[in-house]
């Protein structure tokens, strides 16, 4: 281990010496982002090294858990002249006349990897990861990444890394020539040794002076074709391809300058604002007032699941995937066998696609214990009920569980609409009861609504949040109300969609209006997939509870013809073998007859009207949910919509989308289309605020 003599400076970059090597340590926890103070410190270090003949080379390393994880995303909204000068720092490195070595552990992402590529050499520990994830924030590598990465790893690999945004391991980066030496053992000592070895090597191998390997026209054409599928409607991916092509075609300086201009264009786009909003909203959603890292949690070593249907099976897979044994309960052997075979088939399909081995399939299945006896759940640390939505059935299960589960076990319901307080009330331990609302398909969808009931204990809540992370879900805490956050909003959205058709639009036009916003499925494509009978049953139930007559809308009439959606090979639409929705003339006729019977003269409804009415119906219900405290933050609602309902991340979720449109305009449009704006929405509009400002003010209060 080297023992640099430290010189303490009040800076984010500490200078120390190890003989003839100057070590610059960046200390900007938690992730050493390139914040104000970092460039100043690095430049000062380089100046010191340039002025001192006894310094032969410079090592740049990150203090704490990582190298630089990128530009400081929080500075993106700063005026340009105040934002940290990453590009200037890299220019200085590129022009530097002594060797510089980036020593990487943790992650070198975005501006972090760009900084490293501005150095003469890069060394890393084997577990380090390097990548350019900017596309995930709607921007592009803006400090030389688009120009340097293709020069090192070739055009195709650079495009792959920049367009996926996914990092690669240092060992792979070593094979690609992006890392010059893998250091097993002490990173700083290894980096200093490497720097000393290279101290006199000249000329310095600057990446900016290389050409781009493998830059054939077909590589760029394939990338352009690929992003039409993977990044439909997005700006930054096509800018990335253009810039990578420039890297191969024009002198370095020209590409470097173009990159700066394009970076600003992408950074100032609503798409990037939306993606950045989601980056922080997702992290914020993990924070719950009153719950700290000192809140006790219990360890989850085993799970019990009641119900081996689509939901129960999908939920079980999440646990099996991370090595948690599951006992799954059904009432009938046949249903149990069916459930198990679906789980096995899902895993085997994954294995067939090469994403897991057959040994992995067997290992996961071996963790699964099927049973018809609920008593077998007596040792489970968490039990999740996933049977159909019926309060009496759920109450019966929870009454029995109360007598079976060990003390301290979490008793969770996967209900998507029912009152978790009422479910908890039948047990002698309501503090152990919580809602864990998974989204279908539960083994795929990332969202987990964590429903905090009146008496849920902090330990149960904190354990559920930790569990969400462990099973790789995004957990968002919500309160109890009919449909919680996601489904309550989607019910309102469905009502509006049916209303738009009633007034004159065709279902396919309504769906197209949401596809145009970037949602893969419009409201009717979604309900055909979920099963039309579900919404139908909910409407019937709600009418009964409210003492209203049996609902008889055009969609109820479709369900009554026996068409329930994709599961009956047709609903609002017909489906071909690729599950493409095809408008059905009989259903269109049914809708026209319905309008005629009700005396409705159909009118032309523009795509713009349809998009606004649908998106703003979500926003309006979201504002009510926020006001009632069912969601903690507008950002939480956005996270729910992105991970649970396919709302495009680059729009930032419905609430952020509304803020981008201007809440004043949203209120005006709601009124124009006959909806009553929620009081909170109206107030924010009058004050000229956004939902993000509302969250920030609430967070400070
Ligand atoms: N800027 C500002 N804050 C950042 C940040 C960044 N680049 N990266 C992480 N943070 C913050 C997070 O918001 C979080 O803050 P809170 O604790 O207040 O919530 C904290 O650092 C820890 O982050 P995570 O909870 O995500 O920690 P993790 O260990 O799970 O993951 C990580 C660490 C892999 C670095 C992950 O944070 C990450 O992926 N960060 C973003 C990396 C990135 O996108 N870099 C490119 C930036 S754009 C750029 O560099 C542009 C350019 O070319 C000039």
TrEMBL record:
What's its catalytic activity? a (3S)-3-hydroxyacyl-CoA + NAD(+) = a 3-oxoacyl-CoA + NADH + H(+)
The reply on keyword Isomerase is yes
Which keywords does the record carry?
A: Fatty acid metabolism, Isomerase, Lipid degradation, Lipid metabolism, Lyase, Multifunctional enzyme, NAD, Oxidoreductase, Peroxisome
One Pfam entry name: ECH_1
Q: Which biological pathway?
A: Lipid metabolism; fatty acid beta-oxidation
Bilayer-spanning residue ranges: none
**Domain 3-hydroxyacyl-CoA dehydrogenase NAD binding span(s) in chain numbering:** 303-479
Which compartment or compartments is the protein found in?
A: Peroxisome
How does this protein assemble?
A: Monomer.
What protein name applies here?
3-hydroxyacyl-CoA dehydrogenase
